[in-house]
Design brief:
Layout lengths: L6 E4 L3 H11 L3 E4 L5 H6 L7 E4 L9 E4 L2 E5 L4 H5 L4 H4 L1 H6 L6 H6 L2 H7 L5 H9 L2 E6 L2 E6 H4 E3 L2 E2 L6 E8 L5 E9 L6 E10 L2 E7 L6 E6 L3 H14 L10 H21 L3
Parallel strand pairs: 1-3, 2-3
Antiparallel strand pairs: 4-5, 5-10, 6-7, 6-10, 8-9, 11-12, 12-13, 13-14
Helix pairs in contact: 10-11
Amino acid sequence: MKPRKFDLVRAETTAEALAALSEAGGDAKIFAGGQSLMAMMNLRLADPSVMIDISPITELSYIKETGDKLEIGAAATQVELLSWPGLAERLPLLHQAIPHLGHFQTRNRGTICGSLAHSDPSSELPLCLATLGGEVVLQSTKGERVLSAADFQLGMMTTARAEDELIVAARYPFKKPGEGFAFTEVAQRRGDFAIVAVAAVASGDTVRLGVGGVADKPTVKSWTILADEILDDELNAFAWELKGSDDIHATAKYRRELVRRLGRRVIEEAKACRS
């Protein structure tokens, strides 16, 4: 299938994009890489009458340090982030996760903010944002607001972005001294959607575990560092709390087992690499 006819706006500035978005309202969709949106339009799962292309907006094509966070503009691609100097040292969780995100070809076009806007519960970038406690910058003709990952990601492919708002940037906190990180996932093939993805941050006597692919959005749980047998009990309880369901890719039972096993693995790896 192919998408229905739509009007195309190629915005050259953020102001142009916001004006077009305000005028079109709920009938418009923003895209930069279009790696997820175009597939949904081909299947008629999305049917906008107006498409606003923000990829030409140079003012949104940046990656820069903003205080204790790395700020990534809406037009910056995934491969540009992966190539950012110091990513492995300053944002090791993203450095581990991005190679699992699609394939080299899609990472050349796909954007960080586009993945966050799509809000697939199996996606690696929303999971990392939630686990690290990052934030999203939204802008409209009325002004700007900043939302935490917890407030921004509402559910499956659902965010707190208003119809007239554009995600202009995402901010991921840098590694702090003494923190350790780990990420892994299980998928049918490398680059496919994750059946379960897990990310861990260990710092001092606390550990934080984020899980994607089970609930309708990435879910994060924190504990003080526990004895092995207590950790197993806590992971089992967390796996049940996520309320996974059966689908064509895996059963809820299998997902719970992955949460238990992968959760323990990344927690141990994160604790071991604290520095």
